[in-house]
Amino acid sequence: GENVEQHPSTLSVQEGDSAVIKCTYSDSASNYFPWYKQELGKRPQLIIDIRSNVGEKKDQRIAVTLNKTAKHFSLHITETQPEDSAVYFCAASNAAGGGADGLTFGKGTHLIIQP
Amino acid sequence: SAVISQKPSRDICQRGTSLTIQCQVDSQVTMMFWYRQQPGQSLTLIATANQGSEATYESGFVIDKFPISRPNLTFSTLTVSNMSPEDSSIYLCSATEGLGGSYGYTFGSGTRLTVV
Fold this sequence. Notes:
By secondary structure, chain A is mostly beta strands. Chain A has strands at residues 4-7, 10-14, 19-25, 32-38, 45-51, 56-59, 62-67, 72-77, 86-92, 95-96, 99-100, 104-105, 109-114. Chain B is 0% helix and 50% strand.
């Protein structure tokens, strides 16, 4: 089955600086890679996703890059703000039109934004 | 995007009893899933809830312990049977339309289960 590794487990950055979280996956059949933000006591919220036919995707301060050859994808957050503090999870699945596998999650990164 | 309502939001149960968690989606969805998230940990997939057939379980999870129903395209239940303190966790349902969908995988608000 799929295995997703995520690093670092904790990341502390100064407000306004950039944060990068990295994930690797093992199953070459995986083609969908979402990132979730989870605040304490709340459900995971999708912040950005990328499909395997795309190398990079950006949404305002958030971007995701994918290297299919290396089986590696990364989350980039620029101009970090205090409200970015949360746990971030990467995930992978084999998703097709009309059907999809469940997500395999990384272990999470606790992002701390220092004022 | 689809909105998922999950209940109960939390419960405290006696060991040896069972709890059924309900998940209702506000639109028809192709796939529904159940996850477990132990305190401070990541999410682990329990099973895929298949409409009209038996659920597909991941390694380490069995139907006798976690029976799942999915009678239609908007509703699913997960039962945690014969509970022990090790079952204390957050249980979340999730739904997706598949790759052709526009909202990826959405999650319910979770059920925080404590077994005493």
